[in-house]
Amino acid sequence: MKKRIAIFASGNGSNAEAIVRYFQSTGTAEVVLVIANRSEAQVLERAQRLHVPSVSIPSSEFRQPERLMPLLEQYRVDWIVLAGFLLMIPDYLVKAYARKMVNIHPALLPKFGGKGMYGMNVHRAVVEQGERETGITIHFVDEHYDEGEVIFQAKCEVLPTDTPEMVAQKVHQLEYRYYPSVIESIL
Ligand code: GRF
After folding, report:
1. How remote is the CA of residue 12 from the centroid of ligand 1, in Å?
2. Comparing C-alpha atoms, which of 101, 133, 123 is closest to residue 35?
3. Tell me: the pLDDT tens digits for 5-57?
4. DSSP secondary-structure letter at 10?
């Protein structure tokens, strides 16, 4: 049976789009639902364009199992993929999707993880600290932020002349290249 994936995202959703497109072309799994915690998130428009059902759920309601679980059951969601999702995952969801929920972090964890380390903050810190390499970490989600078991990492070089924006671009390329196929390999 084809595995059914829900993607959780908070913003732009370029990774979400890459994942949807990947599985639309391989047919090895299906993204059946996109959930955003902000109604103005760009990812919702992307989902619509890609003909994937999407829903916006206010951040406060994520803590309510009775809001999320029936939806995930209705769409028969087997796996949850976080792609730029900035909200802490509540315990009941971590438990319900133990080893069936993955996240991507735009750095080489355990470096540059934890509180406040998201989006451009990560790339700024990498440049400020004079790192010579950075990359991506794909990991299972557990109850500790950015600490779940690492599934995959890939690296890229950081040049002394790189700006945080240039680093972000390199990291994004790694994300698009690897996230969909790493998900496929663990389903
Ligand atoms: C990505 O860099 C991802 O690693 C991080 O948030 C960013 C989301 O970008 N968790 P997008 O919304 O997929 O364009």
Report:
1. 8
2. 101
3. 999 999 999 999 999 999 999 999 999 999 999 999 999 999 999 999 999 99
4. S
